[in-house]
Amino acid sequence: PLAWTNTLAAMMDDVAAFPLPRIAAVEGGVWGGACELVMAADIVVAHEASTFAITPAKLGVAYSSAGISRFLAALPVHIAKEMFFTAEPISAWSATSWLMLMSWNSVAGS
User: Fold this and answer.
1) What are phi and psi for residue 107, nearest 5 degrees?
2) CB atoms within 10 A of CB 52
3) Which of 8-12, 92-96, 98-102 has the lowest mean pLDDT?
4) What is d(CA 24, CA 34) in angstroms, rounded to the nearest whole number?
5) SS3 of 26, please?
6) Which of 9, 44, 69, 108 is 20 to 30 A off residue 62, Cα-Cα?
7) pLDDT tens-digit series, residues 23-54
């Protein structure tokens, strides 16, 4: 594995183990490691134009088993597989319908 993956995995573990509620407010593209970081949050709110993608498939890079586990715990299996296999971005609306997000809004900065 690449050296930075150990640091990224340690950070994700620290975020996931944080004892207080974790809230993510996102706007724009949430791709790759940022998408995994959002999956470690307890509550996710996003702007309606936000997109979510797991991009290593397009880059030919393997994803960490811990990261895959986070997505499988948070999403229906068929959705997680689609995101991993295709690396295509999904919309905030789709993410909300799959319970990945709590809500989305149309006003930036709200």
Assistant:
1) -110, 120
2) 24
3) 98-102
4) 11
5) strand
6) 44
7) 888 899 999 888 888 888 888 888 888 999 98
